[in-house]
Amino acid sequence: MKAFLISLGLTWAAVAETQQNPAAVAARNWRETHERAILSEFMDLLAMPNLARDDEAVRKNANAIVSMLGKRGVKARLLEEAGVPPVVFGEIDTPGATRTLMFYAHYDGQPLDPKEWATPPWQPVLRDRPLHQDGRVVPLPANGKIDPEWRIYARSASDDKAPIITISAALDALKAARIPLRSNIKFIFEGEEEAGSPHLASVIEKYKSLLGSDVWLICDGPVHQSRRQQIVFGARGVTIVDVTLYGPNHELHSGHYGNWAPNPAMALARLLASMKDDSGRVLIDRFYDGIEPLTETEKRAIAEAPDVDRDLMRELSLGATDGDGKKLVELINYPSLNIRGMGSARIGGQASNVIPSTATATIDIRLVKGVDHDVAAKRLIDHIRKQGYYVVETDPDAQTRMSHPKIAKVTVEPGGYNASRTSMDLPISQLVLRTADSARGPIVKLPTMGGSVPLFMIDEILHVPTISVPIANHDNNQHSYNENIRIQNLWDGIELMAALLTM
User: Fold this and answer.
1) Quick check: 18 and 94 in contact, CB under 8 A?
2) Which DSSP category does 118 fall into?
3) Which of 26, 416, 445, 430 is nearest to 195 (CA)?
4) Residue 75 gets which letter from DSSP?
5) pLDDT by residue (tens digit) across 28-39?
6) Of 51, 63, 277, 463, which one has the fewest beta carbons inside 10 Å?
7) Whether the Cβ atoms of residue 122 and residue 154 lie closer than 8 Å to each other
8) How many CB atoms are closer than 10 A to CB 219?
9) What does each C-alpha distance from 218 to 102, 118, 141, 243, 308 come to in angstroms?
10) Spatial contact of 410 and 384, defined as CB atoms under 8 Å apart
């Protein structure tokens, strides 16, 4: 770990020495005298609950972001569609510009259980180090420099309100330095990405002419685990499937009926175990069929990426990894099957001596280019049938339960979408790489990020390349409790956004 930290120090030094982008330098100089104001505005935004299912809260967020953009001279408004969380749209017209850049982010956050959080999720706090290192809550200083290793803890601190504040601060910095834009700029901030973006395609279709651009810059996700800036040219798709197995029609005493009444929790464990081998390879028939091969440029980018696997194993206390020895950076270019969670009866102090009535697992399948989300879900369902299960879509009645020894209710959640990947060799791709390199020093470039962002529908409807420009720290706990953003990642993000806005 000591060697790893030394290498990080050398990386930061290299960034400082090689930074040549005037907009990034201006953004750093401006930020150094406005740190408290930036964080104060950010924490006000984080204090707003933002679950996609809460219509009133989502609309408050959207209106707040429209106001934030308006203060920066951006023409901003809401793109409305009945029953859909509003999409924030903004634009800056640049006289004589021949290129249009679209910046995408989302303002909604993952569902949560407040009881799991060390501090309330929508009461942002500063800590002087990561929580798992006993970070203490500290007040936002009224004066003086803020330690860049401090972190803000709140829902959406990293995923995905951080890019919104860095873009806003970058616009302030460029205006103060009188650095002109060279392109027309557009912004689109979505309000239901964490719900799978079920309506984004219809919004894009409805406002197709308004959303035209030369590239979508996707401001979401973490930087590389080495803390180097990374630029990513694709994202995995996703489909989510719920599987419920059935035992008796009500819970039974485990002493009176054990060894006789089938236990659905045990059956579920067997079914899930049938889906993967000990190395983590998925055993579902044809699961890997259709994968679009990587290009030579993409293979070279993967080979050149920093090797952080051993450091990550130490960080995460892992004694082994899946993948038969393949590195993480390689494995994210394959589809994956993950058990998001399982439930049956109760556990721990609340457990009863019962045979459960049902057992449920929620599975997500992450997809790569060439594998359709509907086809992937069908392959999973076919596998369940091959294990002897009668598959239904709704809870079975008594007659159905008595007619079949093994029943599985399988529900494919709406909102699944396919993976997307932009060529690294496009002129716009090369421009983004050069710009990021001039602002942040040597960068990591990858063909695909591990997470899922709805790039496919942008590509399919608008036929526009998408490139991800993430800013969050890799250990930000996104999608879990105690989500956080490292302050230095915010500062770096402001510089990166300033460079991209003026490229």
Assistant:
1) no
2) S
3) 416
4) E
5) 999 999 999 999
6) 463
7) yes
8) 26
9) 8, 30, 32, 32, 24
10) yes
Helix, strand or coil for residue 113? coil
CA pair distance 44, 67, nearest whole angstrom = 13
Contact criterion met (CB below 8 Å) for 193 and 454: yes
Is the bond preceding 160 in cis, omega lying within 30 degrees of 0? yes
> Checking phi first, is residue 52 left (phi over 0); if not, alpha (psi -120 to 50) or beta?
alpha
pTM here is: 0.88
Cα 473 from Cα 484, distance rounded (Å): 9
> 487-501 and 427-440 helices cross at what angle (nearest 10)?
130
Residue 349's Cβ-count burial label (10 Å; 0-12, 13-18, 19+) is: exposed
Cβ contact 88:186 at 8 Å? no
> How many CB atoms lie under 10 A from the CB of residue 144?
8
Beta strands at 230-232 and 444-446: parallel, antiparallel or unpaired? parallel
| Nearest partner of 163 among 448, 501, 502, judged by Cα | 501
Q: Which residue has the tokens 């055993």?
A: 283
Look up residue 470 and give its DSSP letter: -
Angstrom distance (rounded) from CA 266 to CA 359: 9
Read off the amino acid at residue 270: R
Q: Measured between alpha carbons, how far is 391 from 424 in angstroms, rounded to an integer? A: 43
**All domains of the chain in start order, with CATH:** 2-233+422-501 (3.40.630.10), 237-294+333-412 (3.30.70.360)
Residue type, 38: I
Q: What's at 136, amino acid-wise?
A: R
CB 90 within 8 A of CB 113: no
Contact, 145 vs 34, CB < 8 A?
A: no
**Rounded Cα distance, 225 and 160, in Å:** 18
In the three-class reduction of DSSP (H, G, I as helix; E, B as strand; rest coil), residue 311 is classed as helix
pLDDT digits (tens, 9 = 90+) for 150-192: 999 999 999 999 999 999 999 999 999 999 999 999 999 999 9
d(CA 401, CA 405): 7
* Helices 55-71 and 162-177: angle between axes, nearest 10 degrees: 10
Instruction: Find where tokens 């104001």 sit.
Output: 37
Closest C-alpha to 453, from 231, 229, 239, 218: 218
Q: Give the number of residues written for the chain.
A: 503
User: Of all helices (H) and strands (E), which one includes residue 38?
Assistant: helix 35-46
Q: ∠ at Cα 488 (437, 40), nearest 5°? A: 125
Kind and range of the H or E run holding 272: helix 264-273
Of 360, 341, 347, nearest in space to 268 by CA:
360
- Judged on CB neighbours under 10 Å (0-12, 13-18, 19+), 244 is buried
The amino acid at residue 277 is: D
pLDDT in tens, 342-398: 999 999 999 999 999 999 999 999 999 999 999 999 999 999 999 999 999 999 999
